[in-house]
Design a protein that fits this description.
Layout: H1 3-30, H2 35-43
Transmembrane segments: 6-31
Organism: Gimibacter soli
Pfam families: FixQ
């Protein structure tokens, strides 16, 4: 294997890897079962402290 072969393999393999990861991320984001999770995360900054569980910094763990 020459240096040029190694470069070609790294470029092609890297491209395939990144495209595959991108497609997996898009499918994960658009999967219907994940919409409730993403909606909760999107509205988290708008919730009052009373709505937050104690483990995430709500009123339950304040001294």
């Amino acid at each position: 294997m020459t240096y040029q072969d190694a470069i070609y393999f790294a470029e092609t393999g890297g491209l395939i890897l990144l495209v595959t990861l991108f497609v997996v991320a898009v499918f994960y984001a658009l999967w219907p079962g994940n919409s409730a999770k993403f909606n909760r995360a999107a509205s988290a900054p708008l919730r009052d402290d009373d709505d937050m569980p104690a483990a995430t910094g709500g009123k339950g763990d304040r001294s």
